[in-house]
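Recap from last week: sequence in, structure out.
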Amino acid sequence: MYAPNPEEYIHQLHRDNDRSLWAWFQDFTKRIDSNLNDLHRLPRVLAHQDLSQMNMLLTQNGNLVLIDWQFMSVSGLGEDLGKMFGVNMSL
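Predicted structure tokens:
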């Protein structure tokens, strides 16, 4: 861990925003086991892992076809969608 005792650095936080971030972090770490258990209960699904406009084709009758499945995996629900939005936001 980079900062094994983050409490030692709290006095360096001066702005209200930093203090609210610190409070969020403390709350998050208290709930981490519960959050991980929630994630483990989500379904695992087939994921393309390279969704982009270049890998999506429309047939003449309007059906969507995905190509280039070389990175396919079984992943968490929504992972493909999250990655696709992340890539699109960076363009």
